Amino acid sequence: MLKPLMAGNWKMNTTIRTGADLVLKLRDLLKGVEDVDIVIAPPFTSIYHLSHLVADSRIKLAGQNMSWEKNGAYTGEVSAEMLLDAGCRHVIIGHSERREYFKESDSDVNKKTLAALRGGLRPIICVGERLEEKESGNTLQTVKRQVTGALDKLRPGAVKEITIAYEPVWAIGTGKVASPQEAEEVHIAIRELLFEMFGPDVKDVRIIYGGSVKPDNIDSLMAQPNIDGALVGGASLKAEDFARIVGFKPA
Ligand code: 13P
């Protein structure tokens, strides 16, 4: 089994102060946890301050998005170098909210993935089908297109640095979680595709699940052999809930 990765995506929530409160609580609650990689993705404006609060803990920081450009006249954008400088080691790329509200394409996600790797960040690449794609039986086709697109031109050796987050869009923020079997089936398909694309190196690539992950469903999700962790939205804003998710007990 791969070392699980539990990531909290705070989205556009928290100020520096409320984020700091949350991190301090988390640090306390997570003291005894070992053998799990823990990542939180706060808003850009809080990252640097929080980097000091997590410095002597197991919690690592991620950006929620980044530009594929290195620097220059791109008003409102944030580069890989800036994220690294502020204290991030990871970056979430291609979240469905970016794809939907900000029209990010598979090719944008690919450019960001390559730029993140070039810049020394570990991308957490989000994929997942919308409800209409699920209902028309196109889940695997959609997810495979997104994975193939995101990883175009990736050096084979770099695949070890990535994480794929399978987040069915219909499960995000809706309280409707994919069943463990449904998620497992997609994770297996992603793993097989990665193997076809990159060969044996992919055995170390974590495929994590996101979409209404809560303390009461994490154990059954983590009991699936191909679910290597979770990307948590709403529940990551409550210290006790996120700590319970991180300290899952596979059923
Ligand atoms: P929820 O856990 O709130 O459904 O959000 C999932 C998500 O989008 C994480 O990136």
Relevant CATH superfamily: Aldolase class I
Mean pLDDT: 97
Which structural class matches the secondary elements? alpha/beta
Regions with little confidence, pLDDT below 50 for 5+ residues: none
- Unique bound compounds: 1,3-dihydroxyacetonephosphate
What's the level 1 CATH class?
Alpha Beta
Using the 3D structure, state the CATH architecture. Answer: Alpha-Beta Barrel
Over all CA atoms, what is the radius of gyration? Answer: 17 Å
- Please give the order of strands in the largest beta sheet: 1-2-3-4-5-6-7-8
Task: Compile the SSE list and pairings.
Blueprint: E1 5-9, H1 16-29, E2 37-41, H2 44-54, E3 59-63, H3 80-86, E4 88-93, H4 96-101, H5 106-118, E5 122-127, H6 131-135, H7 139-150, E6 163-166, H8 180-198, E7 206-210, H9 218-222, E8 229-232, H10 239-246
Parallel strand pairs: 1-2, 1-8, 2-3, 3-4, 4-5, 5-6, 6-7, 7-8
Helix pairs in contact: 1-2, 1-10, 5-7, 7-8
Descriptors:
single chain; 251 residues; alpha/beta; TIM Barrel; eight-stranded parallel beta barrel; 8 strands; 40% helix; globular; binds 1,3-dihydroxyacetonephosphate
Q: What does this entry look like structurally?
A:
- There is one protein chain.
- The chain is an alpha/beta fold.
- It has a single domain (5-246), classed as Alpha-Beta Barrel (TIM Barrel).
- The protein is 40% helix and 16% strand.
- The chain is built from ten helices and eight strands.
- The chain has helices spanning 16-29, 44-54, 80-86, 96-101, 106-118, 131-135, 139-150, 180-198, 218-222, 239-246; strands at residues 5-9, 37-41, 59-63, 88-93, 122-127, 163-166, 206-210, 229-232.
- It is globular and about 45 Å long.
- 1,3-dihydroxyacetonephosphate (13P) binds at residues 9, 95, 167, 172-173, 210-213, 231-235.
